[in-house]
Amino acid sequence: MKVPPQQDALKYDTQLAVGSMGGNTLGFNRILKQCSDELRNHPLLPGEPVNGDEPAAKCGEFFESGDGKQWLDEQFEQVGFDLGELLERIGYFAPDAKRVLVGYPRLVPEDTTKCLTPAPGQTELPFADIPQDALPVLDQIQKRLNDAMQKAAADVEGGADFVDLYAQTGGNTACDGTDRGIGGLLEDSQVELLGTKIPWYAHPNEKGRDIQAEQVADTIEEILNR
After folding, report:
1. 50-76, pLDDT tens digit by residue?
2. Are strands 15-19 and 97-102 parallel, antiparallel or unpaired?
3. Which has more pLDDT, 151 or 7?
4. Phi and psi (nearest 5°) for 199?
5. How far is CA 128 from CA 41, 107, 121, 122, 158, in A?
6. Which of 36, 30, 60 is closest to 48 using CA atoms?
7. Can you point out the beta strands (E) in the chain?
């Protein structure tokens, strides 16, 4: 992670408000569970599917039409409202702060055939039993979230900076083997609960953490040097 040189630290007096929000509001964990029987039955993973009566194997169709599409549209409306309110509140309570909204890294690669092979040292596929034809749908949902975050940053009065991690992590998705910056859905993380390791559940692993930290640091350095 890059930081401004020690000797130059005193010249920076800019206030920064850096953070991220949107994935939980959208309910991405519920979206993942809608698409996977394995996730639905996992005792350590939070959330419920959007509609447990609909088969996981047809989740792509579910989110592209009917009740699933309507649910997504309503969730995205709430995401947009919450992001706007967050940025406005920061502007109200810290009017001199430079606001930096951090997007989410890309989870699904453009070439989804890469998701049909377990990562080195793993036995489960990166997206477990989620059907391959549903993976582009998941990617489009994430792209839509990224676009909503970028729009919120651009639209808020006074403007906010946006760190577009989605655009910068296409080679470090959950399906990129040793280059993956995202842990597989059922890949063991370093966190334990009652002696059992909790899966990464599509969260950044150590490589992803460092990639994201560098991207955020680069943006902050640009802001400080304006």
Report:
1. 999 999 999 999 999 989 999 999 999
2. parallel
3. 151
4. -65, 155
5. 12, 13, 15, 11, 43
6. 30
7. 15-19, 97-102, 161-163, 188-193, 196-199
Pairing of strands 161-163, 97-102: parallel
Does the global pTM surpass 0.85? yes
Residue 47, token pair as written in the block: 């959330």
Task: State whether the Cα torsion 177-183-189-194 is positive or negative.
Answer: negative
- Partners of 161 in beta bridges: 100
| DSSP 8-state assignment for residue 49 | -
Least reliable range by pLDDT among 59-68, 102-111, 187-196: 187-196
Q: How is the chain split into domains, by residue range?
A: 6-224
Nearest to 193 by CA among 36, 44, 82, 28: 44
Res 1 pLDDT > 80 = no
CATH topology of domain 6-224: Rossmann fold (3.40.50)
Pairing mode of beta strands 188-193, 196-199: antiparallel
Burial class (CB in 10 A: 0-12, 13-18, 19+), 51: middle
Per-residue burial over 102-141, b if 16 or more Cβ lie within 10 Å, else e, is bbbbbbbbeebebbeeebeebebbbbbbbeeebbebbbeb
